[in-house]
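Task: fold both queries, return tokens.
Query 1:
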Amino acid sequence: MALKIEQTAWGVAPVIICDQCGDPIRDARDGNYQWQAGDAEHDPDRPRDGETAMPTRRFAFFTHKACSGPFEQARGGAAEWYAMELSDLLPMLAARLRLVGRV
């Protein structure tokens, strides 16, 4: 996950770095967040007989939309990865952190 703090003459701010090319993603419409699909049958976190299912967690990676294909191909191919638009991440993250409705 390439979330960094960028320090400039005007102050500090978080910046998302593309895990493929290393450049900042400056516009959410130009980026994706991606995670490995995983193998449910061999997932060590999958529930066994009689166990309650626990959440499966995967690391998130960030890519420019133009970089997502090369990123996936270098890491097993597109079938190994899920992707969503970066613009969808922030509202879901805000809700998960109970920030919705706060300013």
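Query 1 returned. Query 2:
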Amino acid sequence: MMSDQEFERSLQKLKKVYDQKSNQSSPEELMNYIKSKEKRKLPFLKRVRGLGIAASLVVAIGIGSILLLSQMPENSASDELVSEDQRGSELITFEEGAVPPSINRDSQIVDTLLIEGQEEEIHLKLWADEQLRFSTYIDERFNVEGVSDEKGYKASVYANYTGDQIEPPFFTVYKPSINYQEPLGDYIKRLRDDYESQGFIESTEEFSSTWSSDADLFFLNEEKSMGKAVHLFEINDNIYEITETTFGEYSEGLGARLQLIEQHFQWHE
């Protein structure tokens, strides 16, 4: 296991890499890139204005995860993080091609994936959730599931490269039920307590998020070789939580795909 000093050095290196990534692209450049990639039939009602740069945080998380992975026993990186009791919850599997009628976007698009400086063509499918009122595009091979219980509703994306779903999900959107909505400050405090109880350490280094979020938190778990960037939104007096997760050997590939998810993400009213 890493000493406190070694772990702190890993955090510092992660922050340095993220800062370097953040300075490479301006919002204007990224907006022009997106406009050239995606043809929209109708203008959206509300769009997340942060484009692409925040996802590079997750690539940086991957670097930190690789450093941590060398200190861990084999197979521990992909252990699923369980953040709440799922007993009695309803599992929802999204049907292929099922698009809410109120969300008008192309069902499939082709984009460019950038990994290690190399570009490759990637086929993306539309992921639209009418209950959470958002849409975006994900790798056509990946799986989407929703879990609903008395605490709230969560929709998650799981990587799937060879037919075997990889745990845990690497991107989630969550809305607490009305009985679990609370002021943002109280929600953040409870979130920090929850992550601390699960063995995560919050980064004390400030990082800039390109999501148009109201609050952003960043956590690392040494034992799981896992990083989590949490983005909180207040929309129509409700809190929504977006979580980006990278872990172990999958960090770089997931980071690149998270960037595409963010670039194409839209809230709908």
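Both queries returned. Flag for query 2: The CA atoms of residues 3 and 18 lie 23 Å apart.
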